[in-house]
């Protein structure tokens, strides 16, 4: 209530005297179970935002970045997953580790990127934060949040909003939200989500800096939606007015009004839509660990396995010293790796067993799966073109021309691969005991 009655008075006192932001919050949009379909079969076992990338749950990278920002008081997760044990345990651990309040707010339906924050606007503005970040959970980034804050102070009015942008190549830009900016002021003049022709090579990274004024703009769309619905024939879509998309409904309208600015980052960024992009994101984060978490990177030690490039190994893993791992490998809890095993560009999940002399390349090996001796599990990387500095990962479709697109191999949980077989570019659903090799198939 106080925040309503005195929206700016005490805030102005603080900001005039110190020019410091007094309080910040962050909102992470985690989606829900019917999202993440491109992430199957891995999302069957664990909500996609908790899937481990570079050894820690995807969301932990976001939370850690938010917790580092000075004056960050609270992190809110918004989504429509049923609260489950895994999510609760993760939040509890993260609160203890980062010493910050973290809460999960569950939507009653999928409300879209704008509808979710509008629905919980009272929770977001309680305590009168001066500004708040909104981050999509399915991006991998260096999260330049402090830079966005200082950019916001230097650009536009105190009430302007900031989108994090990055440069893409022309062809791929059309798969993203495209931003046309005023090159002198960085104001967003025009915003188009996934245009059908080339608009701009500056794309939306799904990370925003807002202040409570954004809710007026979302509210306008909400009211318009409600009026439109009254004029239409009644259907069973009673909650459609609340489903609001920040990108199409809000940014498109705000562009060109002096309210929206783009901060362009040169540091790494990628979407994590498919399982293949998780391996690429893992590579980006492992590379960042050199500066942020050198303790998470394995090194060559007497009596340990041979390490090449960036490798994360959980302390509980049991690895034969003749195994060779890397580059870009992440080994989860309780994994067993036998003699002469070769692993490259792969994620090996909790409890998996890789028997002697097997070879795993460009693959994700599911929880508690077993790969037999001398077997070979291999996929095709879906990495961006290394010769193009602006290339992004293609959001690949599973099928092209009726055939399975060659991509990384994924073994669901508890899959058994027999000795001496080859599994190539295939997706194996959970709890399968294979008796032979497969190539370019989905094994149901």
Portion of residues within helices: 25-40%
DSSP summary, beta strand count: 34
Sheet-strand content, in percent, reads 25-35%
Distance between the termini: 55 Å
Average of the residue pLDDT scores: 89
Shape call: globular
Radius of gyration: 23 Å
Low-confidence stretches: 1-19
Describe the structure.
The protein is of the alpha/beta class. 25% of the residues lie in helices and 27% in strands. It has a seven-stranded mixed β-sheet with strand order 5-4-1-6-11-8-12, sandwiched between helices. A seven-stranded parallel β-sheet has the order 14-17-20-23-26-31-33, with no helix packed on it. Helix 5 crosses helix 9 (214-231) and helix 5 (112-119) packs across helix 10 (246-254). The longest helix is centred in the middle third of the chain and has 18 residues, at 214-231. The protein is globular. Residues 1-19 have low confidence and may be disordered.
Summarize the structure.
The protein has about 450 residues and is an alpha/beta fold. Helices cover about 25% and strands about 25% of the residues.
Q: How do the helices and strands line up, and which of them pair or pack?
A:
Blueprint: H1 2-5, H2 9-18, E1 24-31, E2 52-53, E3 56-57, H3 58-68, E4 72-79, H4 85-98, E5 101-106, H5 112-119, H6 121-125, E6 131-136, E7 139-141, H7 145-154, E8 161-167, H8 170-173, E9 177-181, E10 188-193, E11 202-210, H9 214-231, H10 246-254, E12 260-264, E13 269-271, H11 275-292, E14 306-307, E15 311-313, E16 318-319, E17 324-325, E18 329-331, E19 336-337, E20 342-344, E21 346-348, E22 353-354, E23 359-361, E24 363-365, E25 370-371, E26 376-378, E27 399-400, E28 403-404, E29 409-411, E30 416-417, E31 422-424, E32 427-428, E33 438-439, E34 442-443
Helix pairs in contact: 5-9, 5-10
């Amino acid at each position: 209530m106080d925040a309503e009655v005195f929206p700016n008075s005490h805030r102005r006192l603080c900001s005039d005297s110190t020019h410091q932001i007094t309080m910040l919050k962050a909102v992470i949009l985690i989606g829900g179970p019917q999202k993440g379909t491109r992430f199957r079969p891995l999302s069957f076992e664990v909500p996609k935002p908790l899937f481990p990338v570079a050894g820690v749950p995807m969301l932990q990278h976001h939370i850690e970045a938010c917790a580092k920002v000075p004056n960050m008081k609270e992190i809110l997760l918004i989504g429509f997953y049923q609260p489950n044990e895994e999510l609760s345990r993760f939040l509890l651990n993260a609160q203890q580790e980062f010493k910050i309040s973290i809460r999960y707010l569950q939507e009653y339906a999928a409300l879209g990127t704008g509808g979710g924050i509008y629905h919980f606007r009272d929770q977001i503005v309680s305590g009168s934060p001066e500004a708040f970040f909104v981050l999509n959970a399915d991006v991998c980034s260096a999260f330049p949040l402090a830079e966005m804050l200082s950019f916001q102070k230097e650009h536009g009015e105190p009430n302007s909003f900031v989108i994090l942008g990055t440069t893409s190549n022309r062809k791929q830009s059309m798969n993203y939200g495209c931003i046309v900016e005023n090159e002198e002021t960085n104001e967003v003049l025009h915003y188009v989500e996934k245009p059908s022709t080339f608009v701009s090579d500056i794309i939306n990274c799904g990370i925003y800096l807002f202040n409570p004024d954004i809710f007026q703009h979302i509210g306008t769309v909400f009211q318009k939606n409600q009026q439109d619905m009254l004029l239409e024939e009644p259907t069973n879509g009673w909650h459609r007015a609340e489903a609001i998309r920040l990108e199409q409904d809000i940014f498109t309208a705000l562009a060109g009004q002096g309210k929206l600015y783009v901060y362009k980052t040169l540091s790494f960024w990628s979407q994590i839509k498919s399982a293949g992009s998780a391996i690429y994101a893992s590579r980006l984060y492992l590379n960042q660990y050199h500066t942020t978490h050198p303790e998470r990177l394995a090194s060559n030690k007497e009596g340990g396995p041979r390490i090449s490039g960036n490798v994360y190994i959980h302390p509980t893993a049991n690895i034969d010293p003749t195994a060779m791992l890397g580059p870009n490998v992440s080994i989860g809890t309780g994994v067993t790796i036998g003699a002469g095993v070769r692993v490259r560009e792969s994620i090996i999940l909790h409890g998996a067993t890789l028997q002697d002399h097997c070879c795993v390349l460009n693959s994700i090996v599911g929880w508690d799966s077993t790969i037999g001796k001398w077997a070979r599990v291999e996929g095709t990387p879906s990495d961006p073109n290394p010769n193009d500095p602006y290339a992004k990962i293609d959001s690949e479709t599973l099928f092209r021309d009726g055939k399975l697109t060659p991509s990384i191999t994924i073994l669901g949980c508890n899959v058994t691969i027999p000795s001496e077989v080859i599994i190539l570019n295939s997706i194996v659903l959970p709890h399968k005991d294979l008796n032979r090799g497969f190539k370019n198939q989905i094994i149901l």
